[in-house]
Amino acid sequence: MKYFIITGASKGLGEGIALELVNEEHHLLCISRSESDQLKKIAVAKNCSIDFFLFDLAFSHDIPDLMQRVFDKIDMEKVSGVYLINNAGLIQPVSRVEGLDADALDVHMRVNLLAPMLISSAFIGLSQRMQVQKRILNISSGAAQNPYYGWSCYCTGKAGLEMFGLCISEEQKNEEYPVETMSVAPGIIDTGMQTTIRGTDERDFIHKKKFIELKESGQLVPPALAGKKLARLLLSDDFKDGEITDIRESY
Predict the structure, then answer these.
(1) Which of 127, 133, 158, 246 could bond 185 through an S-S bridge, CB–CB 3.0 to 4.6 Å?
(2) Could you list the active site residues?
(3) Which class is domain 2-187+223-244?
């Protein structure tokens, strides 16, 4: 049995990845603020085990306890692989730096950076004695490498997540059963985050018109398609430990 821990699995890209992983030999462990009825119905129809853990990742102090509950669902006698997909994220606040709200900035960094760091930390610690394949897939963005006007929080969080993944790779390289880590930018996905971006004030995000045009011209990638590519990559030999890549260019 392969176990998949997916954050933000109830909608958007997270749901797209989870739907692709529905399989009777898989057990999905979904962390999100709500459940996906569609995902649950399809999992039942395909005899795939699934559990939802309703949790707000902004409550970072409770993440170690959350991860213990998640790992309690893993049958140590049947596990053949365990995988973490750090997908959940926020785009807000979108603002010039001098206009950032302290509370909004705090929540953003808790969800986008601190939460995946703590989840990964617990994942590595709790799976340490598992002699199976162990992988962490961090959902990154082109914003990790390129600065965007109004996206200082989002760019900084994604850049930090990529560096965190590199540090994990460095620490794990001499382990007998290492945790492999890869950071992947999935492209511009047609999710609620894009809706939020198109609704921002152009004074805070000067590229707003570009994102409206991408939607209107049908250039946004459907979550199901991006999810299929990412799920395939996660389980393939193309998953290269320590790499940072853009799935549009490499897979």
Answers:
(1) 246
(2) 154
(3) alpha beta
